[in-house]
Amino acid sequence: MAISFSSTFAKNIMDGEMRAAVSETVQALAEACKQISHICARGPLEHGLGAETGAANTDGDAQKALDVRSDEIITAALETAPVAYYASEEQDDIVTLDASKPLAVASDPLDGSSNIDTNVSIGTIFSIFEAKDDARSSFLRLGSEQICGGFFVYGPQTSLVITTGAGTQTYVLDPDSGVFSLAIADMKIVPASTEYAINASNHHHWDKPIRAYIEDCLLGASGPLGEKYNMRWVGSLVADANRILSRGGIFMYPGDSRDGYAHGRLRLLYEAAPVAFVIEQAGGKATDGTGRILDISLDTLHQRVPLVFGSKTPVQMVGDYHNKKQDIL
Ligand code: F6P
């Protein structure tokens, strides 16, 4: 047993067989992520985790040795779980494990690959759906159809942030017992915050609404927002999301004018949608700038989406900057 689930885990999933299948699958993912966490903790002792394999993933990012190893570990774990289909950032196509099983799992097996060699938090993101009759329709659907979503963080602590649609919980891996134990039962994101996260080096590529919002943040107390702002950017989505869950703030990876970045950098299926699910369940908000992430229907497996999430007030404010675009232009 990799996780000691509280008796309330997944209590909102009414169908008992489905609830058991989800629990079993999360146990399998937790077992896999304990292995990945162990490899991360050994870092350079494992030799070449951050080395490029010479291949690129579906999105053209250079694949690192740990990306590939993590994908293999997750695949092996899901083969032991009630999972029909697996969609991974590291695989062009959906992998059919056993079409007779009830679930479909999507994952970014190793999020934050550029931080592998830097001893900075990285993670694994996952999303669980009820499987449909065929592989593609099991994933090409609304994010709001997820029955479970979350992410593991490999940092000073190894943790699991998870939701089944009845609040967001954090489990922490106890290094003494080797078991994930419930640490925070019902996470709540503060509604307002003056901390923002964005890769500011892309400033000159952003659309006007994002540029106007950040420029107003930079003007601080004497600007139109009337407050001093602070900036943080880890460069691992899981770490930025975990910080925002802990103390509020806003994360933005908007679309920009670089080649291939019209819809930002992050993938809807296995990055934006599961993060949006845990954020909303913790009382926050997640949009593509204006519309709710979980209301977007996936058209292609590896589709990108602009992502803005965090405390309700600043996320709403970014929406307002988009809606008053005409005044800004
Ligand atoms: O695609 C994954 C990712 O590494 C995220 O974890 C992170 O938020 C983002 O990309 C970092 O992008 P950039 O390298 O542009 O800062």
Please characterize this protein's 3D structure.
It is a single chain. The chain is α+β, with helices and mostly antiparallel strands and 329 residues long. It has two domains: 3-184, 2-Layer Sandwich (Fructose-1,6-Bisphosphatase, Chain A, domain 1), CATH 3.30.540.10; 195-328, D-Maltodextrin-Binding Protein, domain 2, CATH 3.40.190. Helix content is 30%, strand content 24%. The protein contains eight helices and 16 strands. The chain has helices at residues 16-42, 65-79, 135-139, 208-218, 237-247, 268-281, 312-323, 325-328; strands at residues 3-4, 52-56, 62-64, 83-88, 95-96, 103-111, 122-130, 148-154, 158-163, 168-174, 179-184, 195-197, 230-231, 250-253, 285-287, 307-310. A nine-stranded mixed sheet has the order 1-11-10-9-8-7-6-4-5, sandwiched between helices. Strands 13-12-14-16-15 form a five-stranded mixed sheet, sandwiched between helices. The longest helix is centred in the first third of the chain and has 27 residues, at 16-42. The mean pLDDT is 95. It binds 6-O-phosphono-beta-D-fructofuranose (F6P). Residues 111-112, 114, 199, 235-237, 265-266 line the site of 6-O-phosphono-beta-D-fructofuranose.
